[in-house]
């Protein structure tokens, strides 16, 4: 079984955190982004923004693979 790692995606809008999470769980990135925005708005936005920034700092960017 192949070990999967969570990376920030290179297919990104801002930091690649949500796109990387979508790739990790094999989900549609648009659905993940919409869910994140809705959850952030419903939770007063600040916690969601703080979590995103922390993830942007902590999660490494996906290594470049030309093949």
Short characterization:
The protein is mainly alpha-helical and 67 residues long.
Describe the structure.
With 67 residues, the chain is mostly helical. The protein has a domain at 17-58. Helix content is 54%, strand content 0%. The protein contains 3 helices and no strands. The chain has helices at residues 17-25, 29-42, 46-58. Helix 1 crosses helix 2 (29-42).
| End-to-end CA span | 21 Å
Strand content range: under 5%
Computed CA radius of gyration, to the nearest angstrom: 13 Å
Main β-sheet, in a few words? Answer: none
How many individual helices? Answer: 3
Helix content: 40-55%
Strand-pairing-aware structural class: mainly alpha
Q: Would you tell me the overall average pLDDT?
A: 89
The outline comes out as globular
Provide the low-confidence segments as ranges. none
N to C succession of SSEs: HHH
Query: Would you report the number of β strands?
Result: 0
């Amino acid at each position: 079984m192949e070990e999967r790692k969570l990376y920030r995606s290179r297919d990104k809008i801002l930091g690649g955190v949500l796109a990387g999470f979508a790739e990790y769980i094999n989900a549609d990135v648009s659905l993940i982004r919409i869910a994140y925005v809705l959850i952030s708005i419903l939770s007063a936005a600040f916690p969601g923004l703080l979590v995103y920034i922390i993830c942007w700092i902590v999660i490494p960017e996906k290594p470049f693979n030309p093949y």
